[in-house]
């Protein structure tokens, strides 16, 4: 082979080899993609139809609330839950194994009745029996009523029916005048006027289940539990004179009147029956 033919032969061989490689690559199947997700096919989220995603998501089952239980709602605190259910917050914390009262979660189901006690349930209300004995001065009162028969009158609140825990000798918690009446939708108690430092008295024998300022809207607050049915709340005090779990007697000075979390000096006084606010005027003696 002459030297002139060698370059031509080399070029022809290179062109043939390149053509062969292109043909092989065109017919060769693509390399397999290794799946590293435990053998499961991975489909991009963007490719999944929305209807399929909604259908595959399990529906949240409704929480069954048994008597004596409570489901935590947004904005709840353990102190407010205790007040609304007529219990001491320490008792609720103990029944539910809660170590930090600030750590409760929305949707959490709490026991708000003693584990071995009766379930919290509203008792049937029966019509109270009225005493037909005439009151002193009934004749003059009748004459006055006849003279002003055309004028509209507001009947006094009806007394509550007596039941097992209702036999409590109530007393007024402060000596001042009533400056705001009971309103279940707003005030939930009586406003009693006075001066800063006036004594605030326990309305009946009981045990202090809260003493502090952790309940928004109440200022310095004392809550006394009297039995399984009743508790009382004393709000807006300037000074608290009792501690939690302390036994108190009717008429004992438990605080001094003030205006914490209020626009004026006053005592906001509540009576709660199984956690529900009732008009204190229905239970307090006339004065």
TrEMBL record:
Family: Belongs to the E.coli NlpD/Haemophilus LppB family.
Keyword Signal applies: yes
The keyword Signal is annotated on this UniProt entry: yes
Pfam families assigned to the protein according to its UniProt record, in alphabetical order: LysM (PF01476), Peptidase_M23 (PF01551)
Species the sequence originates in: Ideonella aquatica
Compositional bias (Low complexity): 141-152
Protein name: Peptidoglycan DD-metalloendopeptidase family protein
Gene Ontology cellular-component terms listed: cell division site; cell outer membrane
Segments for region (Disordered): 141-169
SMART domains with a match to the protein in the record: LysM (SM00257)
First and last residue of the signal peptide: 1-23
GO molecular function ontology, one term from the record: metalloendopeptidase activity
Keywords, sorted A to Z: Signal
LysM domain mapped to chain residues: 68-112
